[in-house]
Please model this.
Amino acid sequence: MQNIIGIGGAGSKLASKLSSSSVVVNVSEVELGKVECGRKIQAVLRGGAGAYKGCRMDPAIGYEAYASVSRELEGLIRGALVISATGGGTGNGITKGIMEYLVKRSERIPVEEKTLFALVLPYDRLESAEFVENTSMFLNDSVAPAIDSGNTGNIFMFTNRLKFENRIPEDHFNEMIVTSLKEFLSIPRKNAELKLVDGHVDQEDFDLFLSKPYFNHFTVFNYDPMKEFGSQLQEHSNTLLLPAEQPIEALFLMEIPVGGDQTAFYNLVEYFNRQGVKPIYSVAENPEISQARVTVAQLYSRKPAELVHDFNTVADEHAQTKVKKTINQFVELEHLEVNMEDEARKVKAQGQDDIVAMLKRIHKI
Ligand SMILES: Nc1nc2c(ncn2[C@@H]2O[C@H](COP(=O)(O)OP(=O)(O)OP(=O)(O)O)[C@@H](O)[C@H]2O)c(=O)[nH]1
Ligand SMILES: [Mg+2]
Model:
């Protein structure tokens, strides 16, 4: 991978953790000043540099700022990994500009020039309505056409769900995302360094896999050859990413202890074959481990409608909660005193017929 490009607040923090030579892009001079990286690019708006401290969660402002950096970014994104959050204004708006540029490219983009994306999605249950609405729009208007165009590489869909559910400090959570990405991206290096005992995934195979325009769900876990692989894969799904759908393609690296069972990988090949997928794989001896370990990546595609469904539902709920809050603020409901004895007397006075009719209606008699 040639460049790591972080856009907006979250994107910049993650990119600089992933590589000290990363490029970070932001409208906010203050946020640019806080990160250590290889290069900083400030996107500006019509008002000029310094006029905006950020995009105030408004993707339209980020999108406008894209114009000021489009030339530079269009060169840098070739063969790069772009990292941004979808909830705010800067990451969302500038990444939208990049994706539109890719969709418009009519020539076939070579494998080594494909752009990968790592997107950080808000946790819909607890994050603000603006973040969720911006994300929903972004998935619909930018991600879906980008995937359809076939002009992107893999897209990693990270989610802040675990961060909020487990109350993980932000910096620690970012470390978790970066560690897991590094582990996945180290597959070709491990192939070059470790003793291969079966299969072969070299840098070219890996790059080809990354260049495909699908969502990538990868995970790493200790593999028990005595247990069914499918249930282990499910149990050890990467909770930092959205769950995988039915795979279209798969890749795995199985690391085994020195002298360990070299044939356990056939279980994985058979599992994926049952899913209609022929995986590419390699098996390598790792002298530092005492139990088999697998790094598995599945590529899947999702219809745009399915992808945004959750977000739209939640966005609606957010809107309703907002309305309720407004009503509560301005309308005071009278407290009603209900005397149950009086109510019961009223029902009795209405007579038996009503009760029979009601029971009939609900098919009790
Ligand atoms: N995992 C993670 N999420 C973050 C971090 N910072 C912000 N977020 C999330 O990212 C979304 C907001 O995106 P930001 O990157 O802060 O926004 P931005 O792209 O800089 O846009 P503006 O601030 O509106 O200009 C929300 O869902 C936040 O919860 C971070 O360091 N780590
Ligand atoms: Mg910001």
